[in-house]
Structures are given as C-alpha cells and as structure tokens.
Amino acid sequence: MDAVRPTVRQIYALAAALCEKAGEEFPETREDASELIERLRIENGHPAPRLDDLPPLPPHRHRRGRGGGADKLARRIAAEVARELR
Predict the structure, then answer these.
(1) Three-state DSSP class for 19?
(2) How confident is the chain (86 residues) per 10-residue block, as mean pLDDT?
(3) Which of 10, 56, 74, 82 lies most in the core, judged by the most C-beta atoms within 10 Å?
(4) CA distances (Å), origin 59, targets 9, 13, 55, 70, 73
(5) Angle between helices 8-21 and 69-85 (to 10 degrees)
(6) 3-class secondary-structure state, position 53
C-alpha cells in the first residue's frame, strides 16, 4: 500500500506546532524564517547552519505529479526540522 505524503498545509501546521513547542513565534517573512532556521541550527550544533554553507542544488527538470515541487521541499524541510528537534 502506498503511503500518502503530507500536504503542504500539513507541513506548515507541523512547523507551527514545532515552533510553539520550542517557544518560538512562527516566522512572518522568508527573511524571518531564514534567521530562525539559522539560529536554531547553530543552537543544535548543525555543521552547516546557513544555507549559504551548502553547495547549490543540482539543476533539475520540472516534474509534475506526485512527489514534486513544493510538497517535496516541504517534506525535506519538515524532516530536517524534526531531526534537529530530537
């Protein structure tokens, strides 16, 4: 049986719940989100706290359908946040 992946809305809800649990306000802007992510990654001892510290992602073809676009990015972000909060 195929597992149904979380929706973008569910990922945002998860992020908001994790922010609340950590005593943080959910960021209002991309800049606020980047600053919060960087600060939390530094606090957690992440080896590359800034996205600038990572090599650029390889170019990819645009895909349609299951598993692409915003949902894929949201899953990656949620997984990273969950790992860092453990």
Answers:
(1) helix
(2) 86 93 92 90 83 67 60 80 76
(3) 74
(4) 26, 29, 12, 16, 14
(5) 20
(6) helix
